[in-house]
Write a structure and sequence with these properties.
This protein has 114 residues and is an all-alpha fold. The protein has three helices and no strands.
């Protein structure tokens, strides 16, 4: 048994003896590490698939539509106001004419009585 223990110890010493690495050992390790490390991937997403692009486009569309719509609303409101003014003046004119006719009839009938 002693022979086996001595063989084992000598094999263990031989295995654990310091050896100088080959000259290109560091270069090989760095090359292999670079090959194994994941490279950052740049993912190109088309502009039309980005939610921020859609939000910006929607904002610009709204900004482009609101001022003309507001001015059109204001223009139509002013036209309605002018039409209402014209109708009011016509109604007042008709009322004035009817009152004048009524007053003339009342005066005419009052003269007959007196």
């Amino acid at each position: 048994m002693k022979i086996h223990e001595e063989d084992f110890e000598s094999e263990l010493r031989a295995a654990l003896r310091a050896e100088a690495p080959p000259e290109d050992f560091a270069a090989k390790v760095l090359a292999r590490a670079a090959a194994l490390s994941p490279k950052p991937q740049v993912i190109a997403i088309p502009l039309w698939r980005k939610p921020a692009a859609w939000a910006l486009a929607a904002g610009l569309a709204v900004a482009a539509v609101i001022p003309p719509a507001a001015s059109e609303y204001q223009r139509r409101r002013e036209l309605r106001a002018l039409e209402a003014r014209r109708e009011l003046l016509l109604a007042l004119s008709i009322t004035r004419a009817k009152l004048r006719q009524t007053r003339e009839r009342v005066q005419k009938n009052t003269r007959r009585i007196l």
